[in-house]
Design a protein that fits this description.
The protein has about 425 residues and is mainly alpha-helical. It has three domains: about 5-145, Four Helix Bundle (Hemerythrin (Met), subunit A) (Up-down Bundle), CATH 1.20.120; about 170-185 and about 350-435, Serine Threonine Protein Phosphatase 5, Tetratricopeptide repeat; about 195-345, Serine Threonine Protein Phosphatase 5, Tetratricopeptide repeat. It is about 60% helix and about 0% strand. It is built from 19 helices and no strands. It has helices spanning about 5-15, 20-35, 35-60, 70-75, 85-105, 120-140, 205-210, 215-225, 240-250, 260-275, 285-295, 300-305, 315-325, 330-345, 350-360, 365-375, 380-400, 405-425, 430-435. The radius of gyration is 23 Å and the shape is elongated.
Length: about 425
Amino acid sequence: MTELEPLLQRIEQLTPHFGRAQEDLVALATRGRNRDYKGVLQNARLVLEMLLRSLVSTELKQTPGKAMLDELITKFRQQAHAGIIPTHILAHMGTVQAWGNLSSHDHAGGLHDGTGVKVDLQEAVTSLNSLVAVLTWYHESYGQRSAPAPATDAPVKATPSAPTVSPVRRGSSARPADGRRLALAGGVALVAVASGLGVLAYRPMAELSSSSAPSLREKVDALYAANAEPPPPADCQEKDPQGLVMLLEMGSKLSDRVPEKDRVREATAALPALRARGPHWSPEGWFHVARASLLAGHPDSEAMNKALLCTNFAAAENLAGRVGVAQQNLKEAVDRLTRAAELDARFWKPRYNLGLIYLQVPRVEKAVLWLQRAAESAPEIAEIHFRLGEAYQARARETEAAGRGQDVVADQELARAAFCRAKALGHPEASAFCATP
């Protein structure tokens, strides 16, 4: 606490100057002294979002609407708005945002599964160092425009509920500069099949067949949730109990959690049975045929097209993007992945996949944007933060070549923060990049 107290005292000095953000600043100080470090990071993120919304309104003369925090920060990184927020302050904002994202979600699975994300004193100190820099700059730049309102005591806000995406940690974590492969979420790399995540268990066919159709539907939907994918819309779903039973039995062979060494074998084994039912499949069934064929190494375009007859099936659009990569059709891949991202704001895989494509092409600014969005959608996934760190590094190299020294420093700090988040989430290669220069 000795490291934290001076920061909390400085924040309390600044609090009366921050209008409706005072409530969160008061709550932040209370949480800090109660050692609720996760809450500290959450309140810091909320304060930052309020400041940026105010700047969008006052400086850009725009309505922020429902823009997410990463979009608000990105606005001020654009060349058209350069100079409104100094580069080093943007870097501090990125740090507050990143640690706030990490602390705002807990995807340990069931209530009794594991301990979830842990936030320690050092993480709180890192975030608050940056928040104090942001608040000080904002007060010095804008503090005289309106009289401060009196500070008020406020109850600590409740921690927001977490989305239902299951925790995923990917095994492949190569740096693009090393020339090693980049693994797309869902199973296909730009040059090879991605790493695996462990096997989903399944029950014998006879036992599954005794279940009612509604119960089977719930189990199939649980398979999608375990795979971090949205199920198809209701009008595209499999209705026949026998088809649902087959999806349950074969779904475990096609999961992202199947180890990489077993993935081709499992998919090849599932494919004949899935194809044999062909005339009776709904678009959902054809989605599984297309997935099995892709994992087996022989993408079935006809099956993919039949799955895409369901026009709002985000998981199918993401799969079609992976097929596009496998067939070296990056324009098709980008179009499909973009469509998948538009269909479901909480579906992180297409955002992550787009980030990887743009990182390798390379189109670094787009890689940063899509990986930021992926991190916003799924802040608990270590691999996303690791790749985002690589994207910031790549942008730092570009800005250095362009002679923009201040931007280089900012991106290097953003990269380090992203790598540190990956380290905190257990990424095996992040430690070396998290170290302070």
